[in-house]
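Hey, weird one. I pasted the Ribosome hibernation promoting factor sequence into the form twice and got a warning about non-standard characters only the second time. First submission, copied straight from the form history:
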Amino acid sequence: MDTNFNYVHVSASERLEEFTKEKLNKLKERFDFIVSADVYFKTENSSIKEEGRIAEIQLSVPGPQIFASANQENFDMAVNKTISELKTQLQKKKEKMQTHH
């Protein structure tokens, strides 16, 4: 699966990319209709110290694209939350696709 990483006001991180790819590959194994992923890592200048690390993931799938994002205190937590939201959306999409076949 093609995965594009984009960093907005954040230094690129190989560890973070590996962590995210691992999570995305697990999704791909479960939902083989995923074509590609665009991942965005952003920081938010927020007065709230608990948040400000944003992970956004957009998946290319048949039909409308699937998108989720999360704002957490670190990128690992944000990725986990985003992946969890994507999994829910993908499950719904898979069920819809099965009813159309």
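That's the output from the first submission. The warning seems to come from a hidden character in my clipboard, not from the data itself. Residues 7 and 41 are 5 Å apart (CA to CA).
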